[in-house]
Task: structure prediction
Amino acid sequence: MKRRNKNIFKIIGVYFLLGLMGPNVYAQESKLYIITDSINESLIISRSKDTSNPILTQVVKAGIRPYIHPIAAPDGNGVLTEYGPGHHLHQTGLYWGLKRVNERDYFMNWKEDYWKKESSTILEGSGAIVRWQTKYGLLNEEGEVILEEVQQWSMEEREGSFILDLEWQGSAREDVTMGEFYVGGLFLRMPWKKGYNAEIVNSDGKKNLEAEAQRAIWADVGIQVPGRTNLAHIAMMDHPDNRAFPTPWRVDSQFGLGPSIQILGDWKIPKGSTETIKYRLLIYTGNRDNDLIARTWKEFVCEEL
Result:
């Protein structure tokens, strides 16, 4: 904890010198709603009380890993997630999948022999900020839950951008080890095809595959998806309370992106223990905006200081 505290105050000090520690100037502009879609087993986040123009869909099917897809660009031009692309059929938009959990793979496998739905709950169904929760069990070969996973999400819209926060909790029913691997945890698959204008940049300025396995406090992926004349971005942000902060990142050759504790080595959660990990995503359009990312990360970090 002492090391993480030193890191965070050092980073905040740098942002202060850069003039990024001013008052919060964000305005909460939109009221959002969560609508239950029982037919498709989904929670739909919308700017209205119907499902005609969803901005985000959380899929909560029984026997399938929970995932978010699609996410609409804040300006309505384009979809920013992709489900099951040909180069990675197991990838489901925005999702959490761990590798080598007691040598069992929950990243590549997303169906009923690996996952058991326990509940999905709307916590705050309307307002400037909406919140929801999913609870799933990770199953062993005998169909027993070895790790209970709770994902608590919140979403809001500010000045033409979306902010999406995740608090993940993993509660071990037995001693659990996530073995060292180059990926595992939160992962984002945006639509990308050869020839698309796209770039990943992390907080240290490393780009694309240079950022693979590198520690950083945030990483931004921008892609010019169909329907756009400029880039749409999703910046993913680490939190200093997380055990690996600043966490190393998985970056693949199709612009898939996600922080991964497992890159650093084996990660253990003892029986009866719960681990909490927090991330923030900033979804925006246009040129990459380092100032906006820094202010948004600062607010995320300072909420609990």
Confidence is low (pLDDT under 50) at residues 16-28. DSSP finds two helices and 19 strands in the chain. The first strand starts at residue 32 and ends at 37. The CA atoms of residues 4 and 10 lie 10 Å apart.
